[in-house]
Structures are given as C-alpha cells and as structure tokens.
C-alpha cells in the first residue's frame, strides 16, 4: 500500500521563476494539505484541498496556488520565486470528514532551493 | 489554534523508556492531542493521538492528564532509530483541520 508520494525530491530554481510540485495521496485518502518547512523550523500550513476546491488557507501570499485533480492528486504552484521560498515542501493526505480526528500522513517532501 | 509547550531538546538512554512531556493548558473540549516525529530529511511521521483517555499502539503510549492540560508520550524501549524531532500538536475536530507545528523537541537517544 503506497503512502504519500511527492515529486521531484529536489529542485533548484532561480529568483523570479515559477515551480510546480506534485503529490499523490495515500490510497483511500481524498484530502491533500501542503506545508512549508524552513530550515530549523516546524512545518507551516499553506492550504488544503478537498473535492478539487481549496478549503483552508494559511498565511501565504497569492503567489502560492494549488490544484487538486479528480484522482485526488494535487499540485502546488509558486510564482515569482524569492530566496525566502527555499524550503522543504511537504504534502499530507487524509480522509475528509466532519468531525474528523483521523491523522494526516506525510510524504518525504520536495527540497526547493532558490539561487 | 491552542498552543503547546515542549522542551527544546532532551537525551534518552538506549533501551530505557523515553518520556516526552507536552503542555497544552489552553486546550478546548473538541481538540485532540497528536504526536508526530520527524527524522532528518524525512517527512513527519504520525505516532499517536488521543482526546482524554490514555492510548497505546505499536509505537508508543500517550498519557493525558485528567484536566487535559498536559500529556506525555512514552517510547517504551528507546532505540537509536528513535532519534528525531518530536512534535506535540493540538488539533480541532471540527472546522479547522490544519496541523499547527511548533519547533518540537529534539530527542537524541544515546547508546
């Protein structure tokens, strides 16, 4: 049973460029959340997708956008890259439900470096 | 989101039980306590969660105080592979499903 998979594992970009990161959720999960983890810090919530719609958003600028596909996979897009966008980007999947106490399961992330 | 307080770091002896404390004095009635850990260069790994009763699984035990203001994660027999950053997180059951991570507790298991 495959867990959460993310691609690519590493990526190098320059300032001003755009990047797309991809995530496939764990089998049976329909909700995808994205987190940004700067060096030495805990992950910070970016946004969450369910039924192809953004359901929640953290304190991130509009340069960060996402998409969810009918097969529940998701993309994170970042435009006009800044040096401060260098981080580990984590995808987490879960099952939607209200109420829900089911845990989110994480992939190993994409390491994005901005030069 | 309710905030949690953990030690910045701690050492544990290999083969002994490791007791990781967490304070969450502002927790509300519909919030669960979750524990994750992150081994270097990997994504966070879910360990265990609970509401008010003690919980145990194959990885660890979670002890929550009766007033729910603090909890302890117990790794029964720490191994070198348990060296990681451990995060204690409080998460609401309704509405807000995001995980609010702090800086965590860097746990080092010493031979």
List keywords for this structure.
heterodimer; A: 115 residues; mainly beta; four-stranded antiparallel sheet; globular; B: mainly beta
Q: Helix fraction of chain A?
A: under 10%
Question: What string, H for helix and E for strand, traces the elements of chain A in order?
Answer: EEEEEEEEEEE
Helix content of chain B: under 10%
Label the structural class of chain B: mainly beta
Radius of gyration of chain B over all CA atoms, rounded: 13 Å
For this entry, what is the oligomeric state of its chains? heterodimer
Q: What would you note in describing this structure?
A:
The complex is a heterodimer of chains A (115) and B (111). With 115 residues, chain A is mostly beta strands. Chain A is built from no helices and eleven strands. Chain A has strands at residues 5-7, 10-13, 19-24, 31-37, 44-50, 53-57, 64-68, 74-78, 87-94, 105-106, 110-114. In chain A, the strands form two sheets. In chain A, strands 2, 4, 5, 6, 9, 10 and 11 form a seven-stranded mixed sheet that branches. In chain A, a hairpin with a 5-residue loop joins strand 7 (64-68) and strand 8 (74-78). Helix content of chain B is 0%, strand content 47%. In chain B, strands 1-9-8-3-4 form a five-stranded mixed sheet, with no helix packed on it. Chain B is mainly beta and 111 residues long. Chain B is built from no helices and nine strands. Chain A binds chain B through residues 4, 31, 33, 35, 40-45, 48, 56, 58, 90, 92, 94, 98-101, 103-109, and chain B through 30, 32, 34, 36, 41-46, 49, 51, 87, 91, 93-104.
């Amino acid at each position: 049973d495959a867990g959460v998979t993310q691609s690519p594992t590493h990526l190098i970009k320059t300032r001003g460029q755009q990047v797309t990161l991809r995530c496939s959720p764990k089998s049976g999960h329909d909700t995808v959340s994205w987190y940004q983890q700067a060096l030495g810090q805990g992950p910070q919530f970016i946004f969450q997708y369910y039924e192809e719609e953004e359901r929640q958003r953290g304190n991130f600028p509009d340069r960060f956008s996402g998409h969810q596909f009918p097969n529940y996979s998701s993309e994170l897009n970042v435009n006009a890259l800044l040096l401060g966008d260098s981080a580990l980007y984590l995808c987490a999947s879960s099952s939607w439900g209200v109420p829900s106490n089911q845990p989110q399961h994480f992939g190993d992330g994409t390491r994005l470096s901005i030069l | 989101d309710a905030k949690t307080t953990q030690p910045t770091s701690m050492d544990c002896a290999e083969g002994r039980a490791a007791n990781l404390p967490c304070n969450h004095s502002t927790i509300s009635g519909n919030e669960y306590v979750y524990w994750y850990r992150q081994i270097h260069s990997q994504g966070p790994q879910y360990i265990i969660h609970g509401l008010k009763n003690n919980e145990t699984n194959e990885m660890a035990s979670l002890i929550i105080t009766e007033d729910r203001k603090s909890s302890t994660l117990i790794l029964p027999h720490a191994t070198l592979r348990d060296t990681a950053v451990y995060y204690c997180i409080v998460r609401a059951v309704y509405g807000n499903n995001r995980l609010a991570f702090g800086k965590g507790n860097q746990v080092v298991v010493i031979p």
